Every structure is written in C-alpha cells, then in structure tokens.
Amino acid sequence: MGIKGLTKIINKESPDAINTEQLYKLSGKTVAIDTSLFLYKYLMNVRYNGKNLKTKNMKCTSHISGIFYKTILYLSLNITPIYIFDGKPPEEKSELIKDRKNKANKAKTELKSVDNEKDKLKYEKQSIRITKEHIDDIKKLLDLMGVKYLHMDGEAEAIASELCRINYVDYVVTEDMDTMAFGCPKLIRSCLDKSIKRNDFISVINLEQITKNLKITHDKFIDLCILCGCDYCSNIPKIGQVKALQIIKNYNTIEDFINSKHTYKIPENYIEKFNSAKKLFTQYYDKLDPSKLNFVQKEKNIPELIKYLVDDCEISNSRVQNSIKKIHNNYSN
Predict the structure, then answer these.
(1) Separation CA 256–CA 279 (nearest Å)
(2) What is the mean pLDDT of each run of 10 residues along the chain (333 residues)?
(3) What number of CA atoms fall less than 13 Å from residue 331's CA on the CB side?
(4) Domains in the chain with CATH codes
(5) Each residue of 118-145: b (16+ CB within 10 Å) or e?
(6) What's residue 50's pLDDT?
(7) 31, 52, 308, 310: which has the fewest Cβ within 10 Å?
(8) Measured between alpha carbons, how far is 291 from 293 in angstroms, rounded to an integer?
(9) Which residues, in sequence order, are CB contacts of 92 under 8 Å at separation 6+?
(10) Rounded CA separation 199/190 (Å)
(11) 8 Å CB contact between 213 and 202
(12) Phi-psi category of 193—alpha, beta or left, where left has phi over 0 and alpha has psi -120 to 50?
C-alpha cells in the first residue's frame, strides 16, 4: 500500500523534490532494488498474448525475463544493482498480509468461474503471490550474473533505505513511497511525468528537499506518513493527506491531537498502533553494519547464464546474446 496520498502532498507542496532524469546519468552509482516489488510487476506484466511466459514444461519465466533485462540495463549503463529480498515481515503487518492472501484466494476462486479473457486476466493478476520458487529462480539468475543480493529478516524497502541513509548505496529503486518514511534520502521510481513517454526517464525523489519545503523535521515527516495511512497503521477515517499535514504542523505530538477537541472517530488502540509504526520506520537507524551483513555475490558465469536462460527458461538465444553484448567490456567470463 505504501503511504496514502504522499505523492500528492509532494507534488503540491514540494514539486522541486521530484527530479526527472535519464537513467544513464546514474552511471557509476550503486542502487538497492526492492526485489519483491519488481517480481510482482513482472509476473503481472511480462506476458505474450496476455499470458505469462512459460516453458514447454509450464514453468513460469516472466519474472526471470523481467529481472534479467532490468539487470542488463543497469549494468550496461555502469550502474551497480544490489537486490534486496523481503525476509520475515513484522507482526504489525500480519493483518495486511492476511487480507492480501484472502484477496488472492478469492481471485483464484473467481478465475475458475469466468469465461471472457478480460476477466480471466484480471483475476489471474489479482491471484499472484510470490513463492519460494520465484525467489530461488531470481537468486540463481543473480548468482550466474555475478550480481550482489541480500536476504535477511525484515522488509526490503526498510533495509534498502537504511543502506542508502548510511551511504552504502546511492539510491533505492522501488515504487513504494513508504521507503521515504524509512529514511531513504533518494528514491528512484518510474517517471511520474506522464507527458514523457520514453521509458529511459525516471523520477528521483529527494527526502531532504521534501522536509525542507514542508518545514518539518524528519521525525515529523514520519508522523505525517503514519497519519496519512500506512501498512502498519490505517488512517483515521475522514482524515486525508491535506488534513494530516495540517495536524502535523499544528500539534507537537499525535497524542496532543487525539486529546484535543475534534469530531473524528479515532480507531481502537490507534495511539499504540501509531507508536508501533513509528518504531518500525526507525528500526534500522544506525543498526546495520554492511560489513556484517550476509551479502551474496558469486563469480559470474556467462556460459552457464546463457544455458540457463536459453535451455532452461527457453528465452530466445539471439535476445540473450544481444543483451549480454550490451554490457560494458569488463563484464565477461
């Protein structure tokens, strides 16, 4: 879900915090990638005639193809990707995860009863859940490509944000705006300027510029994100992003607002959930030492990579070969 309405707040109150740039300008930089988000994206959207890419043995390869070409693009531009996998989520997210599973199961049931292709595609996409097999597929791909990744307990965007905050990476690549609440200084997402149709443009969102323009501290910014509504704490009914910003600026703490004279119906245990969410958004501050994290990076193996993609995944040999040719000269076996 991310943060409800945060992009609208930034567009209105801090538009200069969003810079539109061509991807090649990140040459020489290192980016942490929120892997699960892109797994979902490719499982939903990398298709042929409306269907997932599959081998003759019916193994889905849409996610493998998507991550391969994304990685090739970064490497060809001299951008170093580090993939971060989701680990065990916090207990505070259990209700949301349960709801997502229920929706996916409901979609699977609906899928069995529809006949037209449009509805089939809709329910099939809604039923997608990432499995261990999907994760293992991508780890094998990254191992063969010699690309670094990290898989530890916790949410990928939280870990990636802290790695960026401590300057281990230069940017975080994701579409989830809650990354900003975790303290990510620079977030990269797909281009928000819809007038630009080229796919080599990106939006870079600067957290420091946002807090400067909003005239609030980062601590207050976290409060704003939670009050808008996030994965760990739902918003107060009838309080949208505009009202949330007013409250944050007018009251020292959320408790001050709750105890003030207002007409809003406060959800049960809201203060507890709010404070718990705030702890989660700061849980990794100065607690990640990259030298002690179990990053995985194996020696690249181009012949085995080609074999895996062409023979096992049945991706076009010419497309694989041409993609690898795009890589800079030092990417060779």
Answers:
(1) 19
(2) 88 96 96 94 74 80 94 95 89 71 74 71 73 95 97 94 98 94 96 89 97 96 95 92 94 92 91 94 95 96 95 93 77 45
(3) 22
(4) 6-215 (3.40.50.1010)
(5) eebbebbbebbebeeebbebbbebbbbb
(6) 61
(7) 310
(8) 6
(9) 232, 233, 273, 276, 277, 280
(10) 8
(11) no
(12) beta
In angstroms and rounded to an integer, the radius of gyration of the C-alpha atoms of the chain is 21
The tokens for 309 are: 């993609």
How far CA 307 is from CA of 12, 135, 303, 324, in Å, comes to: 50, 19, 6, 13
What's the pLDDT at 45? 80
**Structure tokens belonging to residue 273:** 């959930």
